[in-house]
Design a protein that fits this description.
The protein is built from six helices and eleven strands. By secondary structure, the protein is α/β, with parallel strands linked by helices. The chain has a single domain, classed as Class I glutamine amidotransferase (GATase) domain (Rossmann fold). The chain has a six-stranded mixed β-sheet with strand order 3-1-6-7-11-10, with helices on both faces. The chain has a three-stranded mixed β-sheet with strand order 2-4-5, with helices on one face. A two-stranded parallel ribbon has the order 8-9. The longest helix has 13 residues.
């Protein structure tokens, strides 16, 4: 299997599990993974948030880990990467205000490179204008954004542990969907794992 270069777009208070688990899982199968954040450099940290489902009307939030960035946002060239991953949490709501970040998303989509987004990550896809005519999933509270952007929101009766592929786009509702979402990312990347 040829190693792929995968770019993660992240920011402070990204959902802890949605950066840590896919970043490590994709590295574990031999891919090169790089995390960038606007206005930060390699070696800088972002703070994560742990979102949990504890029976309240919405998720609860606790302080997570520090995550060390390993690439420079200012130097990102889409041509250097094979795929894009956008975790959820609170960071997508402000990252979508960054014009260059939205350009990066559009460039990946125009090149038909895999784009994987989870939870609140589709807020960035919506702001980039790449959801029109597509089918996608997101955290339930992001459904209005996804629909307003022209996407069909995939309603899966089996719960929040599923993922959907639409061409180069792989989306899922939240971290309980990691097994399906990461499996779908690997499928779209063409990654074969021998057991």
């Amino acid at each position: 299997m040829a190693s792929k270069k995968i770019l993660f777009l992240v920011g402070d208070y990204v959902e802890d599990l949605e950066i840590m688990v896919p970043f490590q899982a994709l590295a574990a199968v031999g891919h090169q993974v790089f995390a960038v954040c606007p206005d930060k450099k390699p070696g800088d940290i972002i703070r994560t948030a742990v979102h949990d489902f504890e029976g309240d009307q919405t998720y609860s939030e606790k302080r997570g880990h520090n995550f060390v960035l390993n690439a420079d946002f200012a130097l990102v060239k889409t041509a250097d990467y094979d795929a894009l991953v956008i975790p959820g949490g609170r960071s997508p709501e402000y990252l979508r205000l960054n014009g260059r970040l939205l350009e990066i998303v559009r460039e990946f989509d125009a090149a038909k490179k895999p784009i994987a987004a989870i939870c609140h990550g589709p807020q960035i896809l919506a702001a980039a204008g790449i959801l029109k005519g597509r089918t996608s999933m997101s955290y339930a509270a992001v459904k209005p954004d996804v629909i307003a952007a022209g996407s069909s929101w995939c309603e899966i009766s089996a719960g929040a542990d599923n993922s959907v592929i639409d061409g180069n786009l792989i989306t899922a509702p939240a971290w309980p969907a990691h097994p399906a979402w990461i499996r779908d990312i690997l499928k779209v990347l063409g990654t074969k794992i021998e057991l």
